[in-house]
């Protein structure tokens, strides 16, 4: 997964400005296709395939799997697996086939830039027995959004060939343009596997933009979470939490505990019945001498450690 590659221009000027400014773009987004899972079906399970040697050797911190996990939780999708694999064709082929077979929604992150180690598209084409071909509209948008870049306009033929590799997709893939100011599309294979760049800012923008294109669970299927913080040690609250889980499991409530070193424990209650989760949270907070906290406050407190 190369650090260079598809990107989002800073769109804060008029398209009539000088060449030194980056213009505003307003490409049309793709129409919403028919449900790839079939009428009346929706995504229940998901997996993430993070591709890149730099993740495995510690050079780059993977932020995308965390963002995807939060996305899935908020949308009511059960994220079952996150895998990190190297920039190796055999690994990409094996993992992509297996995950598409087992889950409703699979994403890949990384390996779609212009360099030698960006082999995701080519590997996925082999994985699903498809040839590669340049996608004309992607090439067009790539050129249009680079006209203000003198360093790109003046590239050699070899450099242009490398850049155009980023528009070389499996032939039967869906090509979804999800934002008017991003030339790189989300490429979807087998109706399930969506290919994303590794750059976190772009990954997040494109994942959020893909939302209308996904057959998401209905709102009533989405989980609700409350957290309780207690200063008691985890060993002291373990018997009580076991009792809570045993009597609420049939109602679809999940109970988790997450200790902070020498500070206390976050207890998470997750369920689809919001009234039940609220009433249970009140009980747990009282029993554990704790307090109910919002998701935002929990994130702030953990970030401040």
Automatic annotation (TrEMBL):
<protein>
    <recommendedName>
        <fullName>MoaB/Mog domain-containing protein</fullName>
    </recommendedName>
</protein>
<feature type="region of interest" description="Disordered">
    <location>
        <begin position="1"/>
        <end position="22"/>
    </location>
</feature>
<dbReference type="InterPro" id="IPR001453">
    <property type="entry name" value="MoaB/Mog_dom"/>
</dbReference>
<feature type="domain" description="MoaB/Mog">
    <location>
        <begin position="47"/>
        <end position="217"/>
    </location>
</feature>
<dbReference type="GO" id="GO:0042726">
    <property type="term" value="P:flavin-containing compound metabolic process"/>
</dbReference>
<dbReference type="InterPro" id="IPR036425">
    <property type="entry name" value="MoaB/Mog-like_dom_sf"/>
</dbReference>
<dbReference type="Pfam" id="PF00994">
    <property type="entry name" value="MoCF_biosynth"/>
</dbReference>
<feature type="compositionally biased region" description="Low complexity">
    <location>
        <begin position="10"/>
        <end position="21"/>
    </location>
</feature>
<dbReference type="GO" id="GO:0047884">
    <property type="term" value="F:FAD diphosphatase activity"/>
</dbReference>
<dbReference type="Pfam" id="PF24102">
    <property type="entry name" value="FLAD1_M"/>
</dbReference>
<dbReference type="InterPro" id="IPR056596">
    <property type="entry name" value="FLAD1_M"/>
</dbReference>
């Amino acid at each position: 997964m190369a650090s260079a590659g598809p990107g989002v221009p800073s769109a804060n000027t008029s398209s009539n400005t000088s060449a030194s400014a980056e213009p505003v773009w307003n490409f049309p987004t793709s129409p919403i296709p028919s449900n790839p899972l079939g009428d009346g079906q929706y995504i229940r399970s998901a997996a993430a395939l993070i591709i890149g040697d730099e993740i495995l050797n510690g050079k780059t911190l993977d932020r995308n799997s965390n963002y995807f996990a939060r996305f899935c939780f908020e949308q009511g999708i059960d994220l079952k697996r996150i895998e990190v694999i190297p920039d190796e064709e055999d690994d990409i082929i094996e993992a992509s086939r297996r995950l598409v077979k087992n889950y409703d929604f699979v994403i890949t992150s990384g390996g779609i830039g212009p360099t030698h180690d960006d082999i995701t598209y080519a590997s996925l084409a082999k994985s699903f027995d498809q040839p590669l071909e340049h996608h004309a509209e992607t090439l067009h948008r790539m050129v249009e959004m680079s006209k203000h870049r003198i360093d790109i306009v003046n590239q050699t033929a070899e450099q242009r060939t490398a850049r155009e590799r980023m528009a070389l997709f499996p032939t039967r893939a869906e090509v979804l343009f999800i934002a008017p100011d991003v030339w790189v599309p989300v490429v979807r294979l087998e109706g399930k596997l969506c290919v994303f760049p590794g750059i976190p800012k772009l990954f997040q923008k494109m994942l959020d933009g893909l939302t209308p294109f996904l057959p998401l669970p209905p709102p009533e299927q989405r989980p609700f979470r409350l957290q309780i913080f207690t200063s008691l040690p985890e060993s002291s609250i373990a018997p009580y939490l076991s009792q809570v889980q045993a009597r609420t499991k049939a109602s679809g409530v999940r109970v988790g505990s997450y200790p902070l070193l020498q500070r206390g424990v976050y207890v998470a209650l997750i369920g689809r019945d919001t009234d039940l989760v609220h009433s249970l949270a009140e009980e747990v907070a009282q029993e554990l001498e704790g307090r109910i906290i919002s998701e935002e406050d929990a994130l702030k407190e953990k970030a401040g450690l």
